[in-house]
Amino acid sequence: MLKTFLRAGAAMALVLAPAAGQAQVETQAQAQAAPVQDADPALWVVKDEDTTIYLFGTVHVLKPGLSWFDEAVKNAFDASDEIVLEMVEPDETEMQALVMRTGMNMSGPTLTEQLPEDKRAALSAAAAETGLPVAALDRFDPWLAGLTITAVKLQKLGFDPNTGAERMISAAAEEAGKPVSGLETAEEQLMIFDNMPADLQTRYFVSVLDQVDEMGPMLDNMVVLWANGDPDALGALLNEELRDEPELARRLLADRNARWAEWIDARLDQPGTAFVAVGAGHLAGEDSLQHFLAQRALNAERIAY
User: Phi and psi dihedrals of 21, rounded to 5?
Assistant: First the structure.
């Protein structure tokens, strides 16, 4: 289950971490110092007579030094009239209010009390490693505690949302004067997790505690497959565990991909060109976005480059 929520934790790092300021300056300095490695992530296109929609799979947090926003990806971006992300980041104040409303539990059982007794020492260890006091985490719902620990751990390992695909695409769109919209809102994404059954949330959080030291190698492997443009291997890696959690697969992947396919189908009725960037896991596996497009007789063609 950790791989599933690792990518979710990476996504939430976008909204749980500051979007600018000193962190941005440090990231830019790291990017300038890091050796540049070529990356060619997968890109698809769906089109009709007067509409073109590019589909690009992202990694939400990356280490500096990957050159991916070039070649076919940059050409598709430049040709697009609008940019569509999974979610447009809210400002920090709005995000804090959303987290408080959806992920905090100020009166019920504490996080520690919801854990099996043999996992409570692991909570203390993870809290100490990430610098998050147990007393503060105790008022978090299990899903938020898991995503927060994951986001902080990834940043400590050098994975930065400021060098991730969404923020680089958003910055380029702002510079080019291209409109940016979201397929979902931040609240809708948070509610996907908050609406999960309590036992599923706890199982997820236990998986974070059990495998916190494996997060770095796991995401490193994901990034290699993404950079090599291998969606089949990436899909197998990301989605294999979802077979054991069909309800989780439905909530995180199938339902959302079906809604996004409906959006793309409707968008084809409007002339123009759009660049749609969603997490790479949504463009791989049996319940991929391409699968739901095919159900609507729409073909997503892989762009070779």
Answer: 80, -150
